[in-house]
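Bench notes, afternoon.
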Amino acid sequence: MEDDEAQRKLLERSLVKAKFEVTVSKSVEDAIACLDQLQFAVAVVDLSLFDKSGLDFVRELVRRSSRTRVIIHTGNASFESAREGIELGVFAYVEKSQGISELVSQVGRASTAYLKDSLSFAEQEIRLQIRLLDSVREGVIASNVQQSVIFANRYALEMLGYSDKEIYGKNIVSLFDGLIGKEVENQDALSWMASAFDGAQSIERDVSIVLALKPGDQAFSAHPYRTFRLQVSQIVDSFDARLGHVLVFSDVTVQKRAELELNQARELANHAQRVSVIGQMAGVLSHEINQPLGAISNFAGGLLLGLEHSTVALPELKSTLKSIQDQAIRASDVLGRLRRFISGNAAAESAVDINQLVVESVKLLECELRAHHVTAETKLEERQLLVIGDRIQLTQVIVNILKNAAEAIDTAGASERCIVITTRVVDLIVQIEVADCGPGISTEYLGRLFEPYFSTKDSGMGLGLSISKTIVENHRGTMSVENRRTGHGVLVQLLLPQSEHLL
C-alpha cells in the first residue's frame, strides 16, 4: 500500500518480477476493501498516506487475519511508530532508503514464514478433524474417483477388521465382500453399493453385515448379524467436479431390534384386543350360530321322518336340502368373518377400499347390533376410496368404534338407536365419520379417552381406543373423538391419506 504513484509502480514491477502476485492500493480505504475479497500472505504498508496512517490499516488487518505478515515500508520512521508496529506484530520494518532489493528480500522471508505457519495451521486442522472423526461412533471411509480408499476413521477400521496400512488403496466396495449377510433382502447389497458409488445422488440403505468375533467378545454371539445404515455421498470441488465419495455407516442393530420388539408387542396387543372384543360378544355370537344350526337340525329331522314314511316328494326334498345349505352357508359366513378378524398378527399392507371395509365391519357386528337393538346406516362415497394399510387392523378400528357406539346407545336407553357411518374424500384425505345417538361423553373424560387403561365402562379394559389411535397413526392418519355439535351422541373421525393404487 503506497500513495506515491511512482513508488507504487516501482514496487509492483519489482515484486512481480520476483514472481509474487501483487495487489496495489493507494489508500487505507482501498486496502480495507481488498481485505473483503482476498486473503493476503504479506502486506507492505507505507505509514504516511493521504487519508490515514498506515497503522490504521495494520490494526484492521491484524483484527481480520493474524497470519498475514506485515512489512512497514516508510521514509518517515519514528520510535513511536516502530514501538506500535512491534506491539501489533509487524514482521519487518524497512526504510525506503534501504532500497527495493531489501524490501523484496523481506517480502520473500515473510512469504516463507506465512507458508510455514499456514501449513502448520492446516496440519493442526487436519489432525483435529481426524481426532473428531476417530471419536464418533460411526464409520467414515473416503475414496477417490477410482473408488480407492484414501481415508478411514478408527471406528471403520475396528468394525471391518482392517489396519491403516491394509485399508488404504483398497476398492471401497470390496471392503464389504464376505461381510454382507446372505439373506434374500441383502443379496443385491453389493451391486447397490457399486451403483451408489457410480451415481451422482446421496443415498442410504440398511444392510446386514456379519462381523468377525473378537476374543472374549460376547456382543455378537447371540446375533451374528449386525444391521448398519450405509450412506454414500459425493466429494466435490468448488466447481462441482467429483473428486470421490465418502461412505458413512452406523450400527443401528439395537434400534432395529427395538423396532422389531415394539412391533411384535403392538401386534400382540392388537390381537389380544380383537380376541377381547369377540369374547365380549361370545353370548350373542353363540346365539347367532345356534340359529342356523338349529334350523339345519330341524330340516334334517323332518327329512329323515318323511323318508321313513315315504312321504317326501322330490320337489320338497330339493327345497329342504337348499334350506339346509343356506343355513350352513350362513353359519360358515359368521365363523369366517370371526376367524379373519381374530387372525392376522403380522401387518400386511395393501390397497384397501374403505367403503368395502365399512360394509364388512358392519356385517361382522350384525348380531351385536341386533342384540343392542341398534341399526347402522351407511352414507358412503360413490367412488372407490383406497388407502394403503393392513385390512385386519383397520377393520379392528371400525369394529371397536361401532361396538362402543352400540353399547353407549343401549346403556343410556336412548330413544334414537342409530349409528351413521359416513365416508368421503377431501384434498386426498379419506374421511370416515361414525356418529351415534348416545348420551355423549363428559367433558372431563374427553381428554383422557386415548389413555391406555382408561375406560368409562365398568367392565372395560381401557385399551380399545388407545390401540385404535395407534393403528390409525401407524397408517399415517389421525383419529379424534368429540361430542356432536347437533343433537346427542359422539362423533368419531378418522383421517387417512388416499392412495392412487388400483385394486
